[in-house]
């Protein structure tokens, strides 16, 4: 239970306002006790006046403590207060606290003391819960009755202790202990009652008109506090203790000044130090006494003080000399004051080191990449524009520059395998290596996730750019550790020369990117200079993309089927459906060329649905023993409802789900492993079969076999086709078959083109085969005889 109370006070409240509430409470309690003592010693004709003043002081003290503490309460949503319950809570506190002190003051027996304590305790509780009824936030209230009742008991016990201290202790000691008990009663009841409170967020609860905001409530609390202080002042005047009151106020103000984060210094008319708070003394590393009377300016570098100036002014950038001669940037606000101790000016000194550091960080991020620290795109473009304009101006021949567009190969796969933190570490290493090669001969910038640009100054010949590109390539390929794993990166680099390739900075950058894409087509770790023919080829590719978008509607796409056979019996087991495109002008377009285009444009989803519909329509006419294998694209796994789409197609054509085999490549798994696993499990639950295509050519196939529910493994044709003259390929194929069979997964070998390859696979125990030896991709009509023969054989054996 204490943990809940501790959480309420320390975590759910602002400790600074809690401290202020406690100060107000203690001061008002002492005032009320002091006034009660004057009430007890006063003449009967004046006693009621003192009792009213005591009730006002005590009631306002209770009320101010409650609402300052409520300002400290963090409800997790905006809050406001209804006016009527708030005013009612003040009256309740004044009336019941006054009534309690009246009963005690006019007591006739011991029972009266306890009655008075109960009235006061219940008055504090009534004030609290009345005030809480005026609190409005976006939520619903509920109370733990155990804590709520405990709060009232604490208030009554505290008030009983207060009156017992007044009864049994005399003088200042009795007043102090009574004030302590009353403070504990008020604070204990409040925070115990707040511990009982639970707020259930309810956005449907809206604020209503007539409520007071925090600002209005703060003014109200301030006025109430002023009334408490006015009561104390009246008491001081009556008791003629003006000097003691001044000492108390001075101490209180000093505590408030010492609690301030800014340095506060009182100065006389000549600018000498009169007083200073702890923050300023800590900032300058000095003690107050030696500093008194010294010029304020001795604490700063080249700060001038005008003694004749009587208006407020501000110094934006003042360097304070701190401990160990440390220079601290500050800003100073000067304001004239009137004080009896001789102060005529107050200086507010604010430490701006954190703000300066934040400004420097913001300025850095405005010009640099946040991960690598190299220049960002905006800075690079400005520098490129400046270099191009400067190189093109003047009477002399234009100054040459080389622009290198660097794209890290397979960076997305590295991110997927090792995580984004490792990817960021790799980018930092790449940036450092690029900067080391470039040195002071140019500028390195990061343009996007895995793309950098380098502006190389003073390049005389293409040979110089060639040598520089080779140095970049060599620097990147050296292995380095990332996430405790050795990583070796390569990059595709495109090079455009100014002014030969372009004189406009945007065109120059575009052509460097075009050259980079050309280098990427040639393979990993290549670099390529821009040539006009490259631009022409990219234009052709863009035109082909546009034609592909309309190919389906123009009926230019069609399907071919390649048969799959049982390895030992050579009996037909199914077909793999393959997509083909006959362009009206260019003829047959290679799938390796147009399928990536379809994925880039997103039309692959539409094509895949058409392809699966057509293939399932054909498969419906086959014998039930024949399966249908369909390749899946990574882009399909990004669309919502993939499982439902495939399921509707299968049901529409009356195909049993287990006849449909979906071929998955590792690129699908690498892109988003968790999403892919979720979709694959749903496909399995729907009854469809899953095959790992091109097994052994990726990064982590073994881990995927353990993680994903595959029904078949397809050995990539690159291993099968080399078995005739490569013993290593034979060993790899044999090992894959053994591994798959150990996991209970059948194996299909692709690319079987010779009888020798088929014999080896039969000897290794391969389950199924596919290749030109047994059947090429053709239209399904070309395999009608085999399908018919299989149907007749099935009828004869039935």
Q: How do the strands line up in the largest sheet?
A: 19-20-22-23-24-25-26-27
Please mark out the parts with pLDDT under 50 across 5 or more consecutive residues, or reply none. Answer: 240-244
| pLDDT averaged residue by residue | 82
Amino-to-carboxy terminus distance: 78 Å
Helix content: 40-55%
Shape descriptor: elongated
Report the count of strand segments: 27
Number of DSSP helical runs = 28
Structural class: alpha+beta
Major beta sheet, specifics?
8 strands, mixed, barrel
Assess the beta-strand content as a share of residues: 15-25%
Rounded radius of gyration (Å):
43 Å
Give the SSE map.
Elements: H1 2-11, H2 15-41, H3 44-72, E1 79-82, H4 83-105, H5 110-133, E2 135-137, E3 139-143, H6 145-168, H7 171-196, E4 197-201, E5 211-212, H8 214-239, H9 242-259, E6 263-267, E7 273-276, H10 278-284, H11 288-291, E8 300-301, E9 313-321, E10 327-336, E11 345-351, H12 353-367, H13 377-392, E12 401-408, H14 411-418, H15 420-438, E13 442-448, E14 451-457, H16 462-477, E15 480-482, E16 485-487, E17 491-498, H17 505-521, E18 527-529, H18 532-551, E19 557-566, E20 572-583, E21 587-589, H19 591-601, H20 604-619, E22 627-631, H21 642-652, E23 660-664, H22 666-671, H23 673-685, E24 689-695, H24 701-707, E25 712-715, H25 717-720, H26 727-742, E26 747-749, H27 755-764, E27 768-769, H28 784-797
Helix pairs in contact: 1-7, 2-3, 2-7, 2-8, 3-4, 3-5, 3-8, 4-5, 5-6, 5-7, 6-7, 14-15, 15-16, 18-19, 20-21
């Amino acid at each position: 239970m204490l943990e809940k109370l501790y959480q309420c006070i320390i975590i759910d409240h602002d400790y600074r306002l809690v401290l202020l509430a406690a100060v107000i409470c203690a001061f008002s309690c002492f005032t009320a006790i002091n006034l009660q003592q004057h009430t007890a010693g006063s003449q009967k004709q004046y006693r009621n006046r003192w009792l009213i003043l005591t009730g006002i002081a005590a009631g306002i003290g209770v009320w101010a403590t409650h609402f300052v503490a409520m300002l400290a309460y963090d409800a997790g949503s905006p809050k406001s207060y209804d006016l009527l319950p708030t005013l009612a809570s003040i009256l309740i506190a004044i009336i019941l606290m006054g009534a309690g002190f009246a009963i005690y003051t006019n007591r006739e027996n011991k029972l009266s003391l306890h009655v008075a304590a109960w009235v006061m305790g219940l008055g504090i509780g009534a004030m609290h819960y009345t005030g809480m009824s005026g609190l409005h936030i976006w939520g619903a209230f509920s109370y733990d009755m155990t804590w709520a009742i405990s709060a009232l008991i604490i208030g009554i016990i505290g008030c009983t202790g207060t009156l017992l201290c007044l009864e049994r202790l005399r003088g200042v000691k009795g007043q102090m202990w009574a004030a302590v008990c009353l403070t504990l009663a008020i604070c204990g009841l409040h925070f115990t009652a707040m511990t009982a409170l639970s707020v259930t967020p309810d956005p449907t609860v809206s604020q209503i008109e007539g409520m007071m905001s925090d600002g209005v409530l703060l003014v109200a609390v301030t006025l109430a506090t002023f009334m408490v202080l006015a009561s104390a002042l009246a008491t001081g005047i009556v008791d003629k203790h003006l000097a003691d009151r001044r000492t108390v106020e001075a101490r209180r103000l000093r505590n408030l000044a010492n609690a301030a984060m800014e340095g506060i210094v009182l100065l006389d008319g000549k600018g000498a130090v009169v007083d200073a708070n702890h923050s300023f003394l800590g900032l300058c590393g000095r003690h107050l006494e030696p500093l008194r009377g010294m010029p304020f300016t001795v604490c700063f570098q080249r700060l001038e003080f005008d003694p004749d100036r009587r208006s407020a002014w501000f110094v934006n950038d003042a360097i304070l000399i701190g401990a160990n001669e440390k220079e601290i940037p500050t800003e100073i606000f000067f304001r004239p004051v009137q004080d009896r101790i001789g102060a005529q000016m107050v200086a507010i000194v604010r430490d701006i080191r954190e703000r300066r550091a934040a400004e420097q960080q913001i300025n850095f991020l405005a010009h640099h990449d946040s991960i690598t620290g190299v220049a960002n795109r905006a800075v690079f473009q400005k520098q490129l524009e400046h270099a191009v304009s400067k190189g093109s101006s003047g009477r002399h021949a234009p100054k040459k520059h080389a622009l290198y567009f660097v794209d890290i190969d397979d960076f997305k796969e590295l991110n997927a395998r090792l995580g984004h933190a490792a990817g960021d570490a790799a980018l930092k290493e790449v940036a450092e290596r690029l900067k080391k090669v470039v040195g002071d001969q140019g500028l390195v910038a990061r343009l996007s996730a895995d793309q950098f640009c380098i502006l190389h100054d003073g390049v005389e010949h293409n040979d110089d750019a060639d040598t520089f590109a080779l140095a970049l390539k060599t620097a990147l390929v050296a292995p380095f550790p990332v996430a405790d794993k050795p990583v070796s990166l390569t990059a595709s680099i495109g090079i455009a020369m100014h002014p030969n390739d372009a004189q406009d900075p945007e065109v120059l950058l575009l052509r460097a990117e075009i050259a980079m894409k050309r280098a990427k087509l040639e393979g990993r770790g290549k670099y390529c200079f821009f040539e006009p023919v490259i631009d022409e080829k990219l234009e052709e590719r863009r035109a082909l993309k546009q034609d592909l978008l309309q190919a389906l509607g123009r009926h230019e796409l069609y399907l071919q089927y390649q048969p799959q056979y049982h390895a030992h019996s050579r009996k037909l087991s199914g077909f793999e459906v393959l997509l083909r495109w006959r362009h009206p002008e260019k003829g047959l377009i290679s799938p390796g060329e147009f399928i990536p285009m379809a994925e880039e444009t997103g039309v692959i989803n539409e094509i895949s649905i058409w392809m699966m519909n057509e293939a399932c329509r054909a498969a419906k006419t086959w014998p039930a023993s024949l399966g249908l294998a369909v390749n899946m694209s990574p882009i399909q796994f990004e669309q919502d409802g993939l499982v439902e789409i495939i399921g509707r197609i299968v049901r529409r054509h009356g195909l049993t789900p287990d006849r449909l085999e979906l071929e998955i490549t590792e690129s699908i798994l690498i892109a988003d492993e968790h999403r892919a696993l979720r979709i694959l499990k749903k496909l399995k639950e729907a009854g469809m079969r899953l095959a790992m295509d091109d097994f052994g050519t990726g990064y982590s196939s073994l881990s995927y076999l353990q993680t994903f529910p595959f029904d078949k493994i397809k050995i990539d044709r690159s291993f099968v086709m080399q078995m005739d003259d490569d013993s290593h390929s034979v060993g790899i194929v044999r090992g894959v078959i053994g591994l798959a069979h150990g996991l209970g997964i059948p194996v299909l070998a692709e690319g079987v083109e010779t009888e020798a390859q088929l014999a080896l696979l039969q000897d290794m125990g391969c389950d199924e085969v596919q290749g030109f030896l047994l059947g090429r991709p053709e239209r399904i009509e070309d395999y009608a005889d085999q399908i018919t023969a299989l149907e007749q054989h099935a009828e004869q054996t039935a």
